[in-house]
Amino acid sequence: MSAARPLTALRTFAATAALPLLLTACGYGSDATDDSKRTEVAAGAEKLSADEVRIGYFPNLTHATALVGVQEGLLQKELGGTEIKASTFNAGPSEIEALNAGSIDIGWIGPSPAINGYTKSNGRNLRIIGGSASGGVKLVVDPDKIKTLDDLKGKKIATPQLGNTQDVAFLNWIAEKGWKVDAQSGSGDVSVVRTDNKITPDAYKSGSIDGAWVPEPTASKLVSEGAEVLLDEADLWPDKKFVITNIIVSQKFLKEHPDVVEAVLRGSVKTNEWINANPDKAKASANAALEELSGKALPADVIDPAWKSIAFLDDPLASTLDAEADHAVKAGLLEKPDLKGIYDLGPLNKVLKDEGKDEVDDAGLGAE
């Protein structure tokens, strides 16, 4: 497989064609939640240029930078007297809608909804300003039915949604095997079964699917039901890195409150540093946040392998985002988008320089 992973995509036809939204953000649901959490501001702390910053993220391990940063107070510490109002979402489209509506200012989100939000607004509504996580996607299968990659032919393999990141990744992998699958119906040499991650474990237990190409923690949930990992998608990428979560900001907020944006990015960088220096504590913190949000923590046999497969980093891995778009185009699910200007890494690189860390590259897709 070539050095790129496909992207969650919008199946874009000519301007006169219907444009069904096919994208989701590597999430585990489709609706926005109505919960919000305000962090505690230290007495006497000085505010920045905004009274509050409204951030959004998913209750997913791939969004652990936000989960842990809020849970441990690492984001709030950098914001001083500017209060965080945190909201969680179950999928990318709803978070993009919130950003466009001005309900949130900054969000942690998957690459595809970021691209979709950027292209649908003709580059006016958002910027990617930093990275957060890489990896955390696996092909898991029923070991009694599938023992090698070639055994996938003729089997039923689930992906989260037509056109989502993992769906396009799997379609691209199938094409590179020389097999044929109709992208829309999922029928062909392999049956691609679009299944919501929330019900994929039950579909596996019932025998209606033989495996799944899915993100964490769904992959590890399936393994806890007896599935085995046949392929880690990270193995298909150079340096085993590909973007799974980015940080985005509304362009309006970036223009009006650059000091707040810089503070959030500094908090994100310091949170990632703390996560990587304290992996067990960070895992426990993320699980505590998940329990607070969902009412149930992940069991050890799910969170332990899931956590190990995710890398937390500041680099948005811009070249892999561009490659994902190319894979979506190749799969016939996306017209070639103009991504020039989707990144503004100036604030992040300032933070990284101040922290003595290497600056990151926008792969030529930065704002002028």
Describe what you observe in this structure.
This protein has helices at 64-71, 74-79, 92-101, 111-120, 165-176, 200-206, 218-224, 251-256, 258-277, 279-294, 300-308, 318-330, 346-354, and strands at 32-38, 52-57, 83-89, 106-109, 126-135, 137-141, 156-159, 191-194, 211-215, 228-232, 243-250, 310-312. With 368 residues, it is of the alpha/beta class. Strand 7, helix 5 (165-176) and strand 8 (191-194) form a beta-alpha-beta unit. Helix content is 36%, strand content 18%. The strands form 2 sheets. A 7-stranded mixed sheet has the order 1-3-2-4-11-5-12, with helices on both faces. It has a 5-stranded mixed sheet with strand order 8-7-9-6-10, sandwiched between helices. Helix 1 crosses helix 9 (258-277), helix 5 crosses helix 12 and helix 9 packs across helix 10.
> How big a fraction of the residues is strand?
15-25%
Count of helical stretches: 13
* Helix/strand structural class: alpha/beta
Mean pLDDT: 87
User: What's the story with the biggest beta sheet?
Assistant: 7 strands, mixed
User: What is the chain-wise order of helices and strands?
Assistant: EEHHEHEHEEEHEHEHEEHHHHEHH
Q: What topology emerges from the helices and strands here?
A:
Layout: E1 32-38, E2 52-57, H1 64-71, H2 74-79, E3 83-89, H3 92-101, E4 106-109, H4 111-120, E5 126-135, E6 137-141, E7 156-159, H5 165-176, E8 191-194, H6 200-206, E9 211-215, H7 218-224, E10 228-232, E11 243-250, H8 251-256, H9 258-277, H10 279-294, H11 300-308, E12 310-312, H12 318-330, H13 346-354
Parallel strand pairs: 2-3, 2-4, 7-8, 7-9
Antiparallel strand pairs: 1-3, 4-11, 5-11, 5-12, 6-9, 6-10
Helix pairs in contact: 1-9, 1-10, 5-12, 7-11, 9-10, 9-13
